Amino acid sequence: MSSCAALRALAVLLWVAAAYPVVFRARPVQALAANWGTRALHPLPGDITVRLLRDNGFDKVKLFEADAPALRALGHSGIQVMLGLPNELLAPVAASVNAAEQWVLQNVSTYVSKFGVDIRYVAVGNEPFLKSYKGKFEAATLPAVQNVQAALVKAGLARQVHVTVPLNADVYESLDGRPSSGDFRPDIAGLMVSLVRFLLDNGGVLTINIYPFLSLYADPNFPMDYAFFPSPGAPPSQASVQDGNVLYTNVFDANYDTLIAALEKHGLGAIPVVVGEIGWPTDGDKNANAVNAQRFNQGLFDRIIAGKGTPRRPQMPDVYVFALLDEDNKSVDPGNFERHWGVFNYDGSPKYRLNLAGGRPIVPARGVRYLSKQWCVLRPDASTSDPAIAGAVGYACQYSDCTSLGTGSSCGNLDARANVSYAFNQFFQAANQQKAACNFNNLSTIVTTDPSQGTCRFEIMIDTGRHELTGKSAAGRVASASWSAVLALGLAGLAAAAW
Ligand SMILES: *[C@@H]1O[C@H](CO)[C@@H](O)[C@H](O)[C@H]1NC(C)=O
Ligand SMILES: *[C@@H]1O[C@H](CO)[C@@H](O)[C@H](O)[C@H]1NC(C)=O
Ligand SMILES: *[C@@H]1O[C@H](CO)[C@@H](O)[C@H](O)[C@H]1NC(C)=O
Ligand SMILES: *[C@@H]1O[C@H](CO)[C@@H](O)[C@H](O)[C@H]1NC(C)=O
């Protein structure tokens, strides 16, 4: 097309856009979906989180468990919910139809009918076939899915609520690296076929978690640019994969289509495949930072907004971003980055600019109340060679989140003094700034000037006491009584170590 013709076409388009704005708004602009995890020491209150979701155009959310306050906050919100049934419940629910019925009654029916929660899916288990589980949940998964489905039917919810199983991308593979050669992992191939067949027969979907960041984390030779979506006009990555007449320019497309090819190979190509988790962390690893996370998530958001899927599935499926918020009480078994997946910080403030449809940037949570502007730091007159320091820091970091202190992380470059101060402050904030939480054998003191430096932020926690408490399982609900116990115990231990 000549540039003149192109301009003319553009002019026509603009004219049409002006004349028929409604038609243009009805284009397949997909709304956003996110994972809302509640394993934070000071979880963002439910009502504030729901408003944060809505303010930023998220209309679907995934919960890992039936967190009562989160579910209540989602009532009548217009947000659709995928509700997780944790792996620990797979065996009991698989073993007993009654257990499945009770779970549905207590955790689905009640919220749908009493609280007006728009539950659309039950996610049965979370990555139950993960290789590292060594088969632990394999036998129970399909029977649990079947029992939950039967329970949904019995509860009269089967038209509205469907079953799914979120799986890790390690359930399929391609031996020659081309997506078209995709097939299920041999040890679970039969199980995958039975499971997907059941989901298909019952109006369910398959949910898959895809993590380009983890590809990079696991393999230092993984080509960095292939982990990201190519920016428009940029030359394709050197690592692009030619598959027949399709060029795969990024690992997401290649990975997703490997699964689609596997499904098609087994006559299961009709199953919708939702992306249950995808994202990029900002701390806790050398590749986890705001620049990379912004690059990845903006590429992802642009694809979602454009509705652009993969070569084999041209329509972008529902994609649940991982995650909405940071969670400082998550297990760090996978790595220190695990507590830093949020698009937003723990308090709902954006970590970096991210454009929504129309170039509108994401906006922060409103109405968050914080503890006082004070920090706990190493006393200026205390020596870093004080023999009690190691014990104090170890104790502080056992009960609070010190993952930002690691090499290559946001606080990894602090000098020894600031390093200790950071650990003290994390503990002090985690303990709701109780005076006794800034003692540390007389090595610490409270200051009112922000000790943050460079990329390292000395946080002030959310004042959960001034909000209606949310979340049920996370340690954020550790009452001040149990904090007192932690403090008494820890300080006694410290004293013993020092003497
Ligand atoms: C409802 O879900 C919660 C959270 O997963 C769980 O602890 C509880 O046992 C469930 N209720 C039933 C009846 O299974
Ligand atoms: C979460 O917090 C509780 C209470 O402070 C603690 O016992 C537990 O080890 C923490 N879990 C993680 C994964 O940090
Ligand atoms: C800072 O603290 C972390 C965790 O306690 C430790 O691994 C690291 O070596 C410390 N660095 C310095 C410079 O003291
Ligand atoms: C703590 O240290 C300061 C200064 O070193 C000292 O004045 C104070 O008496 C100490 N307090 C206790 C309880 O040891």
Task: Walk me through this protein's architecture.
By secondary structure, the protein is an alpha/beta fold. The chain has two domains: 22-359, Glycosidases (TIM Barrel), CATH 3.20.20.80; 375-498, no CATH class. It is 35% helix and 13% strand. It contains 14 helices and 14 strands. It has helices at 3-19, 21-25, 46-55, 68-74, 90-95, 97-113, 138-154, 189-201, 212-218, 251-265, 290-306, 389-398, 416-430, 480-498; strands at residues 32-36, 58-63, 80-85, 118-124, 162-168, 172-173, 183-184, 205-209, 241-243, 246-248, 273-278, 319-321, 375-378, 444-447. It has an eight-stranded parallel barrel, surrounded by five helices. A two-stranded antiparallel ribbon has the order 6-7. Helix 7 packs parallel to helix 8 (189-201) and helix 12 crosses helix 13 (416-430). Mean pLDDT is 91; it is low at 1-28, 469-479 and 495-499.
- What integer is the average pLDDT? 91
Q: How many β-strands, per DSSP?
A: 14
Count of helices?
14
Q: Roughly what percent helix? A: 25-40%
CATH architecture of the largest domain: Alpha-Beta Barrel
Beta-strand share of residues: 5-15%
The level 1 CATH classification of the largest domain is: Alpha Beta
- Unreliable stretches (pLDDT < 50, length at least 5) are 1-28, 469-479, 495-499
GO molecular function: glucan endo-1,3-beta-D-glucosidase activity
Keywords: Cell membrane, Disulfide bond, Glycoprotein, Glycosidase, GPI-anchor, Hydrolase, Lipoprotein, Membrane, Plant defense, Signal
Pfam families: Glyco_hydro_17, X8
Signal peptide: 1-19
